[in-house]
Structure formats: structure tokens, C-alpha cells
User: Which sequence fits this backbone?
């Protein structure tokens, strides 16, 4: 990995001149707040040398130019909710916070779009759209705390991806500060376009390595007036998994299809102190949301779902109220009740392979000395596997996790899957990215990175290693 220069007093003085002294942080207690994101293993923490809080794209561009001038790395930090070590400053340097870029600029009802700065919370975008009678369909489980710029940079998925797609499907255009400090606008508010390279799509999902997203134009959807959330409870995982392709093939077009194994049912109920969680002891949850523009259509689809789930062996079919969705949204937080150190994986496979993949993981999980927990966006092929360190030594934990991952990733790639569906690669999966990505594909990525960021300033140590 490239070697970077330290953040000297000369650099700090120039940063203060651009941003104001109040927005350049160097106090040790402040720096410690940004040594990690959602990573829980202290051995992976890295202290930044400075933290900056720019107010707009112009100030960000000035910081980037300074970083190039002095050979200092920049790690962009959005809401700090990364599960792939994406916001950890692995090379030290500067952590650049986006939280001051927090304005909703415009909601245009006629054009059905919203223009926002990158530091707006996703939940605030959702609420603002709803209040105007629209839907912003991006819905990651961390919506209460994540920021829209981070969603775009990681191409976040979430609970509504089955029907509406992932974050890149909700974006018309972005404003970006390039790795050399220029401000450019990419994309346009168009239904289709074949005018040269689709550069906005290149930036989306690049995890801050190809540019810093400062503003975005978001697509809005009409809100379906009729909605129902159904909970199908199974006591056999095979039945819960096998019902999903039947739902997808029935033409029901659900908005969400979510899966929680029983260990998650119990841990999230305990975490939320939800005493009446249905079938706490043995239940496996499949949560399904259906939205329609016709009440008759909703009634018909709910009847179909009830019949499909019951015939597949569901022991209970009932309405999923907000408490059930709270359980699903708090899967990650509930793990802390079991282990202070855990590892959350993010694997995506073709939708028709999701059941087989979960069965494979369940089959191998018993031979490993740590709990294996599974929840999944089962309607779009994206599953999350959580491993809990518990009482294992560091050496045993690392060795067994590596063995487990080798089995899971080899299986996933054998059926057309990939390492990450929505969390990204970050710093966590550098080795696996090198191992499993086809050589030609990886070479193209490196060529793009080196061309756009010749000094390798932005988010080094993420996605893949680039030698200086």
C-alpha cells in the first residue's frame, strides 16, 4: 500500500484557513470518535490525524486539493454505519465528515424529484417525501442514522429493493468532488440517456474511492394507498425458504420479503424487550409487504399469500405490525447481547439460489465453534450472516472465520454470487476481493482508480489495494 505523508502543522494551518479553526479537529478525544464505524474489533481501529467538517462542495474541493498537494490521505465518513470497515481511516490522514451538508434543497411535485445535500439523513428524506404525498424508495435498515451520500456511495439496498431496486435505481444525478478537487455534475433528470459513459453509475457503489458525493437528485414514487404487512411463521427453515420462490412466481410483486432465523427472533425480542413476540421459542419469520393502488387487488394478493404460506407449512400467518419491523431493523444491534465482538457478512446470490445458499450455510455452521445467525433480504438474494466471537481466542477466531468464509464464498461464486450485495467491500474484504474477482475485472477497476485518482488520495485501503 502507498505511504502517505503525515498531517503536519503546515497542513493543519491551511485546513483552518479554508474551513475555520472550529471545523478542524485534532484533540485526541475527538479523533478517537472516528477510529471505527460499526466495526467492533479494536484491532481494526485506526486513529485519524485530523477530522474536518466542510460546509459545501467548494470547501471539500479545497481540502482535496490540499491533500493532493501534501500527499495526505482522505477517508470520507457519512453516517458511520458501515459494516465493511468503509469509514475506518486505515492510513490515518484526514477524516472528512459530511454532516454539515444537511439541506433538503428542493422537492418538485410536478417533476417527482427531490434535490438534497449528501449529509441529509435517509429517514428525513423519507419523511419529507411522505409529507408531500410521495415515496422515496431507498430504505436501508439503518435509515434512522445513515446519510444519503453514504447510501449512494455504497449502493445501499434495504427492505424495499424487491420492488423498487437499490439506491442507484433511485438516483437521477449527483454532484461530485473528484479525487483531484474539481466539482462536476454527473447524470441528468431523464428517463433514459445514451449520451456517452454513464459516469454517475460509476460513482455509485465506488465507496468514496472515485469521488466525494456532495449533492444528489432523487427519484420520487407515488405512494400506493393500500398496504399490508404479513408475518408467516415457520418452525422448519426448509419450509420458510421454499415458500419464497412460490411467492415470487405467483405475480404478487411484493415490496419486501424478509427472513429472520429463530436466533434472531429471540435476540431481537430480548433486545427490544418485546414480551409477546410470536413463537419466540421456535419461530422462523418471513415478513412480506404488499402495496397496491387498488383495495381489491390488495385483498386478492393477501388471500394468495395466506394460501401459499399455509400450504407451505406455516404454523401461523398474521399481520406484521410495527413491532415485527422493529425486530427486523434491530437485528444488527441485538447481536451485542450475545457477543461484544462479531462479524457481519453480506453475500448476494441469484434470487433462485437464496434458499439453497441458506441451507448450505446452515449445514456447515454446526461444525464451527461460534454461533451463526442469518437474516436476509430473501426476495432479492441478499443474505447477512453474523458470526459471534464469544469466548474464542483471537487466533482461533481468525482461523475459523477464514475457514468459514472460504466455504461460503466458494459456494456463492460457484452459483453466480458475489461478495457483497449492499454493504460493500470496504477494508474488510480486500483479501477476498483479490481472491474471488476475475483478474480482468479487477484490472479494469484498478485502471479506473489510477486514472481518476493519480495520487491515490481518496479512501485508500478500500475495495482493493493499489500499489503506488
Assistant:
Amino acid at each position: 500500500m502507498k505511504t502517505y505523508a503525515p498531517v503536519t502543522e503546515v497542513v493543519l494551518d491551511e485546513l483552518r484557513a479554508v474551513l475555520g479553526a472550529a471545523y478542524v479537529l485534532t484533540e485526541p478525544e475527538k479523533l478517537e470518535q472516528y477510529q471505527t464505524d460499526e466495526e467492533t474489533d479494536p484491532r481494526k481501529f485506526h486513529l485519524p490525524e485530523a477530522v474536518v467538517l466542510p460546509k459545501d462542495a467548494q470547501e471539500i474541493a479545497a481540502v482535496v486539493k490540499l491533500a493532493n498537494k501534501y500527499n495526505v490521505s482522505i477517508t470520507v465518513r457519512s453516517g458511520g454505519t458501515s459494516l465493511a470497515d468503509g469509514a475506518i481511516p486505515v492510513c490515518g490522514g484526514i477524516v472528512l465528515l459530511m454532516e454539515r451538508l444537511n439541506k433538503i434543497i428542493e422537492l418538485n411535485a410536478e417533476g417527482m424529484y427531490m434535490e438534497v445535500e449528501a449529509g441529509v439523513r435517509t429517514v428525513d428524506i423519507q419523511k419529507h417525501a411522505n409529507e408531500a404525498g410521495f415515496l422515496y424508495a431507498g430504505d436501508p435498515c439503518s435509515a434512522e442514522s445513515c446519510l444519503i451520500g453514504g447510501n449512494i456511495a455504497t449502493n445501499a439496498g434495504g427492505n424495499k429493493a424487491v420492488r423498487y431496486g437499490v439506491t442507484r435505481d433511485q438516483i437521477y444525478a449527483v454532484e461530485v468532488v473528484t479525487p483531484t478537487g474539481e466539482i462536476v455534475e454527473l447524470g441528468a433528470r431523464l428517463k433514459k440517456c445514451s449520451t456517452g459513459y454513464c459516469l454517475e453509475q460509476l460513482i455509485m457503489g465506488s465507496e468514496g474511492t472515485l469521488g466525494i458525493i456532495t449533492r444528489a437528485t432523487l427519484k420520487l414514487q407515488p405512494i400506493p394507498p393500500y398496504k399490508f404487512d404479513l408475518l408467516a411463521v415457520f418452525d422448519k427453515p426448509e419450509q420458510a425458504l421454499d415458500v419464497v420462490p412460490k411467492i415470487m412466481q405467483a405475480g404478487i410483486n411484493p415490496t419486501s420479503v424478509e427472513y429472520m432465523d429463530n436466533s434472531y427472533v429471540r435476540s431481537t425480542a430480548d433486545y427490544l424487550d418485546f414480551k409477546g413476540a410470536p413463537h419466540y421459542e421456535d419461530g422462523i419469520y418471513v415478513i412480506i409487504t404488499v402495496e397496491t393502488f387498488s383495495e381489491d387487488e390488495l385483498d386478492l394478493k393477501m388471500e394468495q399469500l395466506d394460501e401459499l404460506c399455509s400450504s407451505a407449512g406455516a404454523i401461523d400467518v398474521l399481520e406484521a405490525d410495527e413491532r415485527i419491523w422493529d425486530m427486523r431493523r434491530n437485528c444488527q444491534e441485538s447481536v451485542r447481547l450475545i457477543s461484544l465482538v462479531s462479524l457481519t457478512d453480506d453475500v448476494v446470490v441469484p434470487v433462485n439460489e437464496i434458499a439453497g445458499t441458506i441451507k448450505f450455510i446452515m449445514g456447515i455452521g454446526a461444525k464451527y465453534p461460534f454461533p451463526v445467525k442469518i437474516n436476509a433480504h430473501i426476495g432479492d438474494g441478499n443474505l447477512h450472516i453474523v458470526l459471534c466471537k464469544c469466548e474464542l481466542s483471537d487466533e482461533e477466531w481468525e482461523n475459523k472465520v477464514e475457514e468459514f468464509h472460504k466455504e461460503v464464498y466458494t459456494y456463492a461464486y460457484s452459483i453466480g454470487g458475489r461478495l457483497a450485495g449492499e454493504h460493500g467491500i470496504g477494508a474488510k474484504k480486500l483479501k477476498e476481493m483479490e481472491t474471488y474477482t476475475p483478474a480482468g475485472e479487477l484490472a479494469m477497476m484498478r485502471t479506473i482508480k489510477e486514472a481518476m485518482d493519480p495520487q491515490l488520495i481518496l479512501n485508500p485501503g478500500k475495495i482493493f489495494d493499489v500499489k503506488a
Q: What stands out?
A: The radius of gyration is 22 Å.
